[in-house]
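Q: Sequence in, structure out?
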Amino acid sequence: VQLQAFGGGLVQAGGSLRLSCAASGRTFSRYVMGWFRQFPGKEREFVAFISWSGGSTSYADSVKGRFTISRDNAKNTVYLQMNSLKPEDTAVYYCAAGPILSTKEYDHWGQGTLVTVSS
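A: Exactly. Output:
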């Protein structure tokens, strides 16, 4: 599966953005989908994942209550709604696809999309 993330941009603190990740192919619903982010000079970190049908989700503590992951299998797309953004959310965000519910086990990655939150 090939993934393409988009929707990043510049937003003021307290604002919202919605990231999208479009997947190619007919097997999208067979994948757990995740979002990750990478700060400058840091390793990529887990943000959220969603199960194959969307019935189960998990979030990093740092985003819990502010971010919401969702998916539309008919559109082969996963979303990350980001509310109450903080300057420390500034990062490159990546979507990923994997076989199991995990914060680490992902086989396919999209290109990153930059989110910048100004104070």
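The longest strand covers residues 91-98.
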